């Protein structure tokens, strides 16, 4: 794991006149458990998508550990994201979903079980 930092991060979606996320400054320590909470539309998913990579920040910087990943491709960030709906396999348990990306990365089954243990 690694620390995460949002430094004055902003995203305005194309065609929009208002920022979906504005001046987000947040530091999360290595190993810290953090849950963003807020009303629908306040920018939680947009912030997570900027961290994982599918959405690119308009302004500001995002750091994973000491690395500035703001403009880095999602597959080069070594980070996984589970979506809350529509992208889950109904026959799998939560642990199976988390193990899926490890399996795709070629991690052996026993090793992936070890990595998933809290
Ligand atoms: N793909 C998109 N294109 C344009 N606007 C979007 C898009 N996704 C989200 N938004 C807008 O950005 C704002 C933040 O949305 P979102 O990050 O999904 O909020 P939350 O996850 O907190 O409910 C909302 O005003 C939403 O309508
Ligand atoms: Mg959301």
Automatic annotation (TrEMBL):
Domain spans labelled ABC transporter: 22-108
Keyword Repeat attached: no
PANTHER family: MALTODEXTRIN IMPORT ATP-BINDING PROTEIN MSMX, OSMOPROTECTIVE COMPOUNDS UPTAKE ATP-BINDING PROTEIN GGTA
Top-rank taxon: Bacteria
SUPFAM superfamilies: P-loop containing nucleoside triphosphate hydrolases
InterPro entries given in the database record: ABC_transporter-like_ATP-bd, ABC_transpr_MalK/UgpC-like, P-loop_NTPase
Keywords carried by this UniProt record: ATP-binding, Nucleotide-binding
Official protein name in the record: ATP-binding cassette domain-containing protein
Pfam families attached to this UniProt entry: ABC_tran
Gene Ontology terms for molecular function: ATP binding
Organism placement in taxonomy: Bacteria, Bacillati, Actinomycetota, Actinomycetes, Propionibacteriales
């Amino acid at each position: 794991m690694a620390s995460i930092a949002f430094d004055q991060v902003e995203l305005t979606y194309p065609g929009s006149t208002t920022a979906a996320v504005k001046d987000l400054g947040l530091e999360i320590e290595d190993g810290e458990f953090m849950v963003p909470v807020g009303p629908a539309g306040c920018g939680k998913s947009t912030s997570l998508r900027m961290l994982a990579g599918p959405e690119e920040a308009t302004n500001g910087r995002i750091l994973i550990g000491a690395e500035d990943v703001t403009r880095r491709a999602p597959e080069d960030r070594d980070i996984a994201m589970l979506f809350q709906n529509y992208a889950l396999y109904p026959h799998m348990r939560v642990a199976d979903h988390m193990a899926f990306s490890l399996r795709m990365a070629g991690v052996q089954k026993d090793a992936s079980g070890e990595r998933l243990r809290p």
